[in-house]
Amino acid sequence: MPILVIAEHDNASIKAGTLNTLAAAQAIGGDIDLLVVGSGCGAAAEAGAKIAGVSKVRVADAAHYADGGAENVAALVAANAAGYSHILAAASTFGKNVLPRVAAQLDVAQISDIIGVESADTFRRPIYAGNAIATVQSADAVKVITVRTTGFDAVAETGGSASVEAIDAAADTGLTTLVGRELTKSERPELGAAGIVVSGGRGLGNGENYHSLLEPLADKLGAALGASRAAVDAGYVPNDYQVGQTGKIVAPQLYVAIGISGAIQHLAGMKDSKVIVAINKDEEAPIFQVADYGLVADLFEAVPALTQALG
Amino acid sequence: MKILVPVKRVVDYNVKVRVKADASGVDIANVKMSMNPFDEIAVEEAVRLKEAGVATEVIAVSCGVAQCQETLRTAMAIGADRGILVQTDEELQPLAVAKLLKTLVEKEGPQLVILGKQAIDDDANQTGQMLAALLNLPQATFASKVAIADGKATVTREIDGGLETLSMSLPAIVTTDLRLNEPRYATLPNIMKAKKKPLETVTPADLGVDVAPRLKTLKVEEPPKRSAGIKVADVAELVAKLKNEAKVI
């Protein structure tokens, strides 16, 4: 039976996390249908059809899908679930909002945040902030799964030529209304998909220092900016900067942790990075236990010097 | 209006768990147990709504072993009015918990259910959404602000790109994110008072819910260990290592 992957998109293009989710679907094996739900999302559907490995794009285009609300998207997915062995979405705030609702409507378990596929019914997933890895087997008829995107290498964005098929919208549930969005505008790479991440913690002292010290460094490196929970709670940066167990999970080529002590909840969000650099004046900070290169120094001197040295 | 707040007993967030030698799970014998931190935020929010005159009663619910009574007492020390324990020694997975909660919502008729967005043991992040689906109610997950007025909830949610605000009619399901509030510490007089508050115990069978697990855990292992690297002396050495050894810049 085929696999259904729910695309995350902005109506024009498909978000990077969907490419990793498609890779997880490929690891399970079988034909893959990509579901694009939105309002005026034809361009996203066309982009989805070009992704390597997609057999068919199914598009539900209706005004009540404009906000991507969980109630309406879940109702549509549940109504179209018949005939699929697996339903997958990225473990983003979108996927985490929608898929448990789908699973409950289908009376099946959801398998959260998988990082590995052992077989069509057996998956690996982190528990306890990644301090243990559980291998779980599902006996449900449909496996509803969210995918930790850092666990799977993205499929190619091009090279496919899937057919595109319109499907009927489900009735509008009318349960929620979007009042507004306050999205962080940034020219930088997306935190979840960036090759290099520069991340700051409480050691920076305040938001002004965060911006004046880390932004020039991130500019030099072409990096995304991240933060520890402490920095977000203290208001240095908005919530969507948070890296950790309950924030964003990242695994870039290079993660630079500046003034971050390294609580287990933070490590859970970045310890799969290829190379970790830590700059902290406290040589006992737990971040040094996972850092490939540790620099015990006053960050107020070291960070400008590093930015300078990168020319 | 009533508010229902489900609370979970989990390994304390400061404990670094150990995987059992036989790979059957993590060792929680003699480990400090606490209320799931996101659920504490949920209790705090419900109690604040009561203090603001919006809610009339806050009911805490916990599902699990007999010791979950302690978790309920903690919720009542923060300010919940009474507790319901759905007692079982069976492993409870999110779908089963959502079904148990559904029966209690139908019995108690709360206008708002506030849950933690995720428990820090299984990291599932499912129960609130599942409960909303089973009851066919609106959901506002990952909330950083909740306002109730005129039979409606206006909830600001933390999403990947920033924040979004939703409006929905009550009853509704809300799950908490970290920035919603900072839970108070329970004072000693309130801890003493909590011991006298009503606590009712029921079983899944009483509620007519089949809680049999749907997922079987085959094994639990340690993650691959990341070994500590080296300390560099200065910025120049760091840059040289990143360029020549790690080759990442």
Structure report:
The complex is a heterodimer of chains A (311) and B (249). Chain A is of the alpha/beta class. Helix content of chain A is 25%, strand content 27%. In chain A, the strands form three sheets. Chain A has a seven-stranded parallel sheet, with helices on both faces. A five-stranded parallel sheet of chain A has the order 13-12-14-15-16. A three-stranded antiparallel sheet of chain A has the order 6-7-8. In chain A, strand 6 (116-119) and strand 7 (122-127) form a beta hairpin. In chain A, helix 3 packs across helix 4 (93-105) and helix 5 packs parallel to helix 8 (299-309). The radius of gyration of chain A is 21 Å and the shape is globular. In chain A, 59% of the residues are buried. Chain B has seven helices and 13 strands. In chain B, the strands form two sheets. Chain B has a nine-stranded mixed sheet with strand order 9-8-7-10-6-1-4-5-11, with helices on both faces. In chain B, strands 2-3 form a two-stranded antiparallel ribbon. In chain B, strand 4, helix 2 and strand 5 form a beta-alpha-beta unit. The radius of gyration of chain B is 21 Å and the shape is globular. The chains are: A alpha/beta (311), B alpha/beta (249). The interface between A and B is large, with 87 and 78 residues.
